[in-house]
Amino acid sequence: MSDPVASAKTNPVPPDPATAWLSRLAGKFVVIDGPDGSGKSTQLDRFVAECESHRVPLAKVRDPGGTRVGERIRDILLNRDHDDMGIRCEMLLYMASRAELVDEQVRPGLKAGKLVLGDRFVSSTLAYQGTAGGLTAREITAAAEAATGGLWPDITILLDVDTATANTRMTGSAPKGAKPDPTLSLFADRMEAKGDAFHARVRQGYLDQAAANPDRYLVIDATGTPEQVWSNLLAQLRAHTIAQ
């Protein structure tokens, strides 16, 4: 009688071509970002479930936060008692949290061969504190280089949604058949008070980044249903060179 274990070693089952691309993301740093109300949390959860179902080694991280020190910084950043915080102080606090995250979570995850899936990263700072807040991309990028030791995502998936749709989702006044996003987000804290004009600039900041770095950004139309957005995200990511 043949040994099934030995047979499996000498005659391995070929990977399913429909999902093999997902395994090629192991050892990569993938970030999902976008304005609040874009459905980011929903798509992150779907991504995690997809990786787990195909046994892709995964480390999910959130920014700001994700570490003991980072969570304390997050509390400061999103607390309405700190509405008078200066924009440069705000930016540097994000970078401090990010430095801990990279050292404690991102680099170790990549070294272990995991797909590191990030919930926001420097792209958020460039949009919120940069385009919308008035800091230059040059000074933010310089601070990011110092904070991360030069580590940048292999790909940033940008979920794009207009401000009106985002507001509808976040306030719970979604049209019949649609579900409001119940997750805690920047809209629910300090950033909400900045108003629609601010968030319109945030959206433009994200789009400007993607236009300037098309090889490292995927722009996904996030105005559809969660299922439509997920299908589009998978199709674009699979076709990208990072998954080849």
Structural summary, described in words:
- The protein is α/β, with parallel strands linked by helices and 244 residues long.
- 51% of the residues lie in helices and 11% in strands.
- The chain has a 5-stranded parallel beta sheet with strand order 2-3-1-4-5, sandwiched between helices.
- Helix 5 crosses helix 7 and helix 6 crosses helix 9.
- InterPro entries: P-loop_NTPase, Thymidylate_kin-like_dom, Thymidylate_kin_CS, Thymidylate_kinase.
Question: Can you summarize this structure?
Answer:
Its EC number is 2.7.4.9. The chain is α/β, with parallel strands linked by helices.
* CATH fold assignment: Rossmann fold
- The gyration radius over C-alpha positions equals 19 Å
Distance between the termini: 40 Å
Uncertain runs are 174-188
State the shape: globular
Overall mean pLDDT stands at 87
Biggest sheet, in brief? Answer: 5 strands, parallel
Would you count the extended β strands for me? Answer: 5
CATH architecture: 3-Layer(aba) Sandwich
Number of helices: 10
CATH homologous superfamily placement = P-loop containing nucleotide triphosphate hydrolases
- Strand order in space, largest sheet: 2-3-1-4-5
Structural class: alpha/beta
The level-1 CATH class: Alpha Beta
Share of helix, binned: 40-55%
- Following the backbone from N to C, one meets helices and strands in this order, namely HHEHEHHEHHEHHEH
Relative strand content: 5-15%
Q: Total domains, how many?
A: 1
Catalytic activity: dTMP + ATP = dTDP + ADP
Pfam family, one: Thymidylate_kin
Domain Thymidylate kinase-like: 32-229
Protein name: dTMP kinase
